[in-house]
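Hi P.,

Sorry for the delay on this. The queue was packed all week, but I finally got your sequence through. Input first:
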Amino acid sequence: MSYRSNAAEAWFQEPEDSAVSPEVAIDLLPPESLTRPLWKSLLTNLRDTVTPEKLAPLELTSRPVNVGLLLGDRLSLPWFRTVFTNLGDVISPETLPPLELESSPLDVGELITDQLSHFWFSLLLRNLADRLVPEKLPALELTSKPVANIIPETWILLPAWSEVISTPKVFYPDKPKPSGTAPPSLAVKTPAIPEAIPARSSNPTEAGLLRDLRRSRIRRRIWIGMAAAQAGYLIAIIFWPT
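Then the structure:
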């Protein structure tokens, strides 16, 4: 039994002996012109230019379609030709045959563009008519059946305690003030506390991120310094007398 596609069967006829299937040579190697030397390719191009190969006349199996002036020829026309052509199309447009529709038209009512072109008072009257005498539409036909039990009977819905308990507001008494007045305390100048050094983080990810940030700041200062030095050097060689 031979496993071949329909395209292969169209090109290669079924052999007389079904037991022996024809072997099709499949060449997957790149074309010879890909590995051709440069001088040989140059000579081949020169030969094709001087003495081109004579090919048999082209046989077309399809009928040509009149598409009018090609786009390449239209772009190559001078500007006044296009102006005259446009004027001719405006004055005497081309008469085309009636359009043949193969599909049946569908009534969609008034188009949106036509609705937007109406005056404002017509839209106002239409809205009032729809509000006073609405259009009676047929009953909606549902093809799906409603779900009987959306929430299973085995489930228990428990509301929050704040929604169940209702009690009056309770105001706690103020804290008692200390009896008597405390003696005024002498202002003691405390020494300035040095800025605390951030402790080393125990998280390795955070420590690595802080290390990368410190290194990026150092690299930024180095690059800014090098750029400033180069700019100063360029300014110096411009204004320095030779």
